[in-house]
Amino acid sequence: MLNPASPEFIASLRGTLPAATFRDAKPGYLQEPRGRWSGMGEVLAPATTEEVAAIVRACAAARVGIVPYGGGTGLVGGQIYPEGPMPIILSLERMRRIRAVYPAENVLIADGGTILADIQAAAEAEDRLFPLSLASEGSARIGGLLATNAGGVNVLRYGNARAQCLGLEVVTADGIIWNGLSRLRKDNTGYDLRDLIIGSEGTLGIITAASLRLMPRPASYGTALFAVSSPEAALSLLAMTQSQVGESVSAFELMHRQGLDFLAEVGPEIRLPFEATPEWMVLIDLGLPVGIAAQSALEALFEAAFEAGLAQDGVIAQSEAQRAAFWSIRESIPEANRRIGSVSSHDISLPLSAVPDFIRQGKDAIDRIGSFRINCFGHLGDGNLHYNVFPQMGQSAADHLAERAQVKTALHDLTHAMDGSVSAEHGIGRLKVDDLEKYGDPVKLLMMRSIKAALDPLGILNPGAVLRQA
After folding, report:
1. All structural domains of the chain
2. Could you tell me which residues come within 8 angstroms of residue 84 by beta carbon, excluding any fewer than 6 positions away?
3. Can you give the pLDDT at residue 135?
């Protein structure tokens, strides 16, 4: 049983922590981006790992819950505590230091609160690449990104956040510091605690620093938008692209016309490259080594795709500005979705060969429930779809509250039946605790609960996230 962070408890912390640690609980700490969750908590923003440890020790002694807070960009409520005893919201916003860069080793060490864009810039300053990239990179923090094992647009080539991390510094549930900031590629000395903490969403420990893998920067980039006839054609085009340029495919994004129609309807205002918007499109991004011209590679790819009947039209970026404009289309779709307001949004992954069947059967399932608009887009290269259901024009999501659960259940049941996952890259948080219990393997859940009990026996770390609060 947890206790609230009472005024007396906060007063005791004021006697041991610098004044700058204490923050007003402004709305930004208490609401998630979609506006579906509101929370509560006393906000503390420590500046050092030692201060984080001191806070955790105090909370453990008083049995006060802790909600780790990174950039607040999570979409499954993991950073929000909606009900129960008043917790501490532990924000890493003041821990933003790049601790060290080792260019010869392709390693960068950063505080857990460092914004992703700042890590990317620090890598670029050393002529290196930190390839984790997603729409919220200007505000998302590396600790939260690792805690959720974030994906983004470059997973096809570089992997999830997990694949880009060599080591961690973590404050445990009893307030001691695990110094696991390894720079090693090989280290088989017992259990891999790094991989246990990554993806645990702050329920097993608080990430205060990370040792990150850097990559060589490609010599040239190439970006193109191809119009394809169907998701099947898109999958065949993905295979053709990989056969022609190999590991140089950084991203392969599937987009449906509905997403571009939403941009035209509510903004953000984006210039669309096709005179008539095709039903399906793929955005292809290449990062090429010295000796291969991006323009020539994409031209050869389009010619082969056109001859094979996989692509009907295409536009190849002729400049860095045009390349950025193409990506702006893809990155603006989530904002247009937010402005429209979804009835139900889904972050799912599927075996690649099952994607076309899911898209067809998903629409059939939604049509049986009612009349909706569907915006299906995502990272086709790794099987991750964002399959979102919206009201018809002139209606709002509020008009369909009664159908929201039915829509979600239909799509998640279909995902599970096709050996997919109902949480591809956003995590479980609090939104999908029921889904994890419904679709998760019982033995996996038993093991997860055992790990939680061993590492956080008091249940103070992000209580109610991932696993139901006892």
Report:
1. 7-91 (3.30.43.10), 98-216 (3.30.465.10), 220-339 (3.30.70.2190), 341-417 (3.30.70.2740)
2. 2, 65, 463, 464, 469
3. 87
Q: Is 59 left (phi over 0), alpha (psi -120 to 50) or beta?
A: alpha
Nearest to 385, CA basis, from 354, 428, 364 = 354
| pLDDT score recorded for residue 291 | 87
Per-residue tokens: 454: 């061993």
Task: Write out the two tokens for 233.
Answer: 């054609």
Q: Please work out, in degrees rounded to the nearest 5, the angle formed at the alpha carbon of residue 62 by the alpha carbons of 59 and 63.
A: 75
Return the DSSP state at 248.
G
Q: Which two tokens stand for residue 328?
A: 């702006």
pTM of the model: 0.94
Tokens encoding 442: 């019982």
Terminal Cα-to-Cα distance of the chain (whole angstroms): 8
Tell me the mean pLDDT per 10 residues along the chain, length 470.
97 96 94 86 98 98 98 93 96 98 98 98 98 94 98 95 98 98 95 97 98 96 96 98 95 96 92 89 95 92 97 95 94 94 96 98 98 97 96 96 97 98 95 97 98 98 94
User: CA of 40: how far to CAs of 12, 25, 43, 79, 351, in Å?
Assistant: 20, 8, 9, 10, 39
Do the beta carbons of residue 298 and residue 282 sit within 8 Å? no
Strands (E), 75-164: 88-91, 98-102, 107-111, 128-129
